[in-house]
Q: What sequence folds into this?
């Protein structure tokens, strides 16, 4: 199983949506992979961001976590702790992807 962690802090809904669509498209085209999507809201205060995150229709393999703002690393760590993937795991940020 592949766990994808998407930290969010006051991100425009359009960018969150593009990220999710990109992930869904990849895995819909590559059925060989089982995945879970973990979206970590790192204390967003932007109403548009919060409304969008709360309106997501979560699939069985999606998790939405709300936490107080702790920064990108802490948000990523929260996602890692919630991930179903056991050890070993790799953290690989993809620049410019999400």
A:
């Amino acid at each position: 199983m592949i766990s994808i962690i998407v930290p969010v802090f006051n991100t425009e809904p359009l960018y969150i949506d593009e990220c999710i669509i990109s992930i869904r498209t990849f895995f819909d085209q590559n059925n060989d992979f089982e995945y879970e999507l973990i979206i970590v809201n790192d204390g967003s205060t932007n109403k548009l961001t919060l409304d969008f995150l709360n309106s997501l229709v979560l699939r069985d393999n999606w998790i939405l976590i709300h936490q107080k703002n702790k920064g990108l690393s802490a948000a990523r760590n929260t996602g890692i702790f919630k991930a179903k993937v056991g050890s070993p795991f790799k953290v690989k940020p993809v620049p410019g992807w999400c």
Notes: The beta strands are 2-8, 35-42, 62-67. The chain has a mean pLDDT of 86. DSSP finds three helices and three strands in the chain.
